[in-house]
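Student: I would love a firmer grasp of how sequence relates to backbone shape in proteins. Thank you; the sequence and its tokens follow:
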Amino acid sequence: MAETHDVIELILQDHRRMEDLFRLMRSVEADRAAALQEFADLLIAHAVAEEAEVYPALKRYKNIDDEEVEHGEHEHDEGNRALLGLLEVEEVGSEEWDSKLEDLVEAVTHHADEEERTILNGARENVAMGRREELGVAFMEERERQLKSGCGSADNVRRLVNS
């Protein structure tokens, strides 16, 4: 992938990586536990960075629906709860694992699809590239800070879900 600072493209790259990780978590030939840990770190870092750096900035644009942004935050909470459910399953590949994985896939896929159609398209139409690049740098800095902190640990996800 080309190096970009456009926040829209950075968010889309994360969404595509999450889809790849879903495929790995479903595959009996993959290291499903490792894929889950990478996914957990990415999902939490991505959501925290969006809520800290991107969503507040987008709420300032009159042609971007604040309710959609707030709905995106609510859907992050739903994704976190589904992620915690999967992280708490003891046996990778069990029926419970498969069921909790599908709950997670559904929550995250629904959110990503909705976010791409509403928030990101609104940003693409209404936010100048220079500002999108500034937001992209801030998004990536916060995302990296979160990744370095082990943000996808079950304990941290539990803390986020219960806060």
